[in-house]
Amino acid sequence: RGRALAHPAGARTACRATWPWHMPSARKRAVEAAETISPYVAEFVGVFFIATTFGCNAAGGDILWLPTSTAFAIMVGMCAIATGAGGHLNPAVSVAFGLARKERWSEVVAHCISQVLGGMLGGYFATCAGGEEGHIPVHPGKGLDWLDAFIVEVVYTTAYCFVALNCMVAMRNNPPNARNQFAPLAVGFVMIAGGHAAMGISGGFLNPALVVGFGVAGGSHPRWCLLYLGFHTVSAVLAAVLFFMVRPEELFSAGAAAGGSDFDRACGVVCPCLFRPRRDAAEEDARREPDIYSADYRPSAPVRLLSEFLGTYVVALTYMLASAMAPHIAGDGARKGAVRDTFAVAHWATAAGLLSMTYALGNVSGAHFNPAVSAAVAMTGRGVCSWTEAFFFIASQAGGAVAAAATVALIARHATAKIEVRDLGPVLSRSWKSVAVGETIFTAVVVLVVLCMTTVKSPRYLKAPSTRSFQFALAIATCFAAGGFALEDVTGGIMNPAVSFGISSAGFLSSGFDVGGRHVGCLVYCLWQLAGGAIAAALFMLTHPLEYERDPLLSEAAA
Question: What is residue 32's three-state secondary structure?
Fold first, then answer.
């Protein structure tokens, strides 16, 4: 052995003989074993961190910041873990990925098991840290029943999985060698929107791993835990179907039959045992896979209208539920001023929902979600959106707002729950003049930001962002939040005719179809907000004159 150590080659041989770990075959086997389990360990650690954050906030922190804190934990987990794992951190997301044919079912099952174990351990640690207050119940809020919990958990868990599918695996959002960088932000902010809207109704879990973790650690009745798990399973199915409906180009990669409507084909992919779309040879020949990376590609009109409906529904529902639940979150014994302060949470939650849906659907319909935006885009011309298309967009947005109003009215049907939708009108001692000035100015700012961030097409504006850039939805959402905070004690900070219409419709449905004076307030708000959109269109034309001049290089190329 001494002679072997005198020569470098002999030293390596002796070392390998002494330490088998350094032998290439042993090291290779160890790396392969670690590589096999590393994604599941990463999911376990990420969900453990999320569950601990959720539980400690609920037990001893400021409950108003629970959704935001949990959302930040989700974003951190996705940013850190996505390099070594899928970054799902939610069994509902993993199931949705499996249903959408984006992940093998063996991996889905392994991910779900590791996520549930992480949630259980995190729930146990959070319960130990919080003591008596650390027991987080898994059941509907006071005066509410399973249907109310079903509605909000399904809506926002569906939104969570839907945004994850659109931002993490959609081909147009992640072209080859150019994956987007906004997926963690988009997915995490759904937790802010859904948490504030659903926290007082169902607990705002939106994650089966949290339900199992806190259900076991907190001693909740197994019936409620199983019901919540059923809610989240339904959400995964809905999210996968909606994903294929707003992105029918994904059906080709999923191997869907060409016969039938996009809805039939989507259901056939997600639930092949229940739905079997017909196969038509002629239709299969006519239906060709589109070139989705082409600059001329544009989704069909029904797809764009569905996109606007879904985005407006989430935005309007979040505003109405978050503002209606604010006094309940603050507590019955809170000071009047303290309760008023909690209304600002509605703007933060609505901005979060707007950000997530804009990232998810920005390259589908343009993510207007606001009649003032659609009208302003049509006013600016340039072929981005015709007046006919704007009319149908506005009708779709109004439909989304009415659907959100019906959802709120269904939840507010309990007299004991005391869930009331705020009225449209001046706040505190303000006048209608304040409403006119505030809504017009801040709606104009929001619409101008949308025009500048999503509709600039001229290559001579080199700094104009695209719908795959990081800043476009962030700028729109933070502008909306700024206006909401500024106008909370003036007008309520609506800045969206669809939300105004939804609030009026929710009051109409909740009061037993009593019109009262709601139609007047709705009309006034909508008129001033549309006026703000017209001002924004004029400002855009003044600040972007090159949009209306043909590029000389393109003219030479055409010649």
Answer: helix
CB 425 within 8 A of CB 511: no
Phi, psi of 471 (to 5 degrees): -90, -15
Q: Is 203 left (phi over 0), alpha (psi -120 to 50) or beta?
A: left
Tens digits of per-residue pLDDT, 11-37?
Answer: 444 544 454 545 567 777 777 777 788
The whole-angstrom separation of Cα 508 and Cα 541 is 39
**CB-based contacts of 543, cutoff 8 Å, min separation 6:** 452
Alpha helix locations (H) across 331-464?
336-342, 344-365, 371-379, 387-411, 432-454
Find the distance separating the first CA and the last CA of the chain, reported in whole Å: 82
Cβ neighbours for 273, distance < 8 A, ≥ 6 positions apart: none
Alpha-helical runs (H) found in 256-343 = 262-270, 281-286, 301-330, 336-342
Element (H, E) at 489: none
Cβ 194 vs Cβ 218: under 8 Å: no
Q: Are 70 and 156 in contact (CB under 8 A)?
A: no
Distance CA 186, CA 353 (A): 9
Q: Is 285 exposed, middle or buried (0-12, 13-18, 19+ CB in 10 A)?
A: exposed
pLDDT for position 337? 42
Give the 3-state secondary structure percentages of the chain, helix then strand then coil, rounded to 5: 70, 0, 30
The Cα 358–Cα 355 span in angstroms is 5
Sequence letter at residue 368: H
Are 215 and 224 in contact by the 8 Å Cβ rule? The answer is yes
**Residue pointed to by tokens 């988009």:** 186
Taking only the tens place, the pLDDT of each residue in 86-118 is 789 999 999 999 999 999 999 999 999 999 999
Cβ pair 427, 491 in contact under 8 A: yes
Read out DSSP for 145-160? -HHHHHHHHHHHHHHH
Instruction: Retrieve residue 311's tokens.
Output: 């985005």
**Per-residue pLDDT tens for 392-407?**
999 999 999 999 999 9
